[in-house]
Amino acid sequence: MTAKALKQVSDRFSLFNDGRKLSANKRNYIIKAVQAMINSPRTKELLRLGEAYGYYGHQSRQRANKLSIGETEVIMINGRPVVVENVPSNRTVSITCSDDGIVEHTQEFLDTDTGRIALGLHNSRAGGWSWATGGQDTREASITTSYHGMDYVLQPNYISLDHPAMMMESANSEQMILESLQEQGFDEESARNIYANMTQQTNVELVGDLTNQLMYLESVNTDLREKVEQNAKATSMLLDVVDSLPIYVTDAQRKAIANMASKEDHQVVRAMFESLCSRKMATLPTNSYVPVEQKVSVAPQIKQQFVNFGSSARKFQ
After folding, report:
1. Which end of the chain is more exposed for a tag (fewer CB within 10 A), N or C?
2. Residue 317 falls within a domain, yes or no?
3. How far is CA 62 from CA 49, 174, 218, in A?
């Protein structure tokens, strides 16, 4: 596809700081993998040919259910094939990733309907860039392996480092957006229709973000519940061992052993075990206590006073 360029813009974002607290993706990108993706022969070829296209929103890719899409795609709607056009709004001119995880990229807005819409939103400080990458997700991190361009979206995953006020400043700027769209050649009615569609998309994306957050919190809650159950089981086993001790354990000592959550608990348990080593405890009638048997022998001088009536010796002198 050949299209005249309207404007070039550069932007930066951090892989490890999405600028928000619980929204967007929470993936840990491995910097070396991202750099390898950017420097791969395939990515360099896309940039050289000017074919690293991006789109207004992710809908075109989602609709085709793939990252790399052509100018036209055949999709199934209600069981019937439908031909749809995918009109790019921009293309990547250059992209780099520093060792600190800062991605810097330059985009070129194209002279297309979607390109003018994206440029109008950019000029009114609404929306931002969201890259399309392929790769593999693991528990530890997400490893990117292929680059497919930057889309201009209303809810970017990463907040711009150069324009952090975008989205926030545009929250109640309907008039500014309408004026920017009209400056790109859209009449008032078309601009309002685009704005209405944009608002609807924003709500859908917000619902998606909230759904992702809910799933994330449910996962965290499940992990915490499992840890609580494991701790309760361990505490029960520990108290069972305490009950088998050959000593009397007070309620305060049982509570301290089960919790062990404060300095006071530590002192109570330590005092209990120290008392087990005392000499006084050694003589208590516990299960392990064995009395010492003492044998008493009769002294020789006492034996000499015994009278043996069976002896032939004289008894008295």
Report:
1. C
2. no
3. 24, 27, 26
Coarse DSSP helix, strand, coil percentages of the chain, rounded to the nearest 5 percent: 40, 20, 40
Number of domain units in the chain: 2
How confident is the model at residue 154, as a pLDDT?
A: 80
Q: Are residues 210 and 245 in the same domain?
A: no
Q: Is there a single domain that holds both residue 119 and residue 162?
A: yes
Residues 143 and 261 in one domain: no
* 253 close to 266: Cβ distance less than 8 angstroms: no
Tens of pLDDT, residue by residue over 176-206, are 565 555 565 667 666 667 666 666 655 545 5
Identify the CA nearest to 183 among candidates 48, 2, 6, 308: 6
Task: Give the C-alpha separation, 131 to 123, whole Å.
Answer: 20
Residue type, 46: L
| Helix/strand/coil for 157 | coil
How large is the average pLDDT for residues 118-132?
A: 86
Boundaries of domain holding 37: 5-218
Place of tokens 């985009």: 107
Q: Give the residue ranges of DSSP H helices in 50-167.
A: 59-64, 113-123
- Position 122 scores a pLDDT of 87
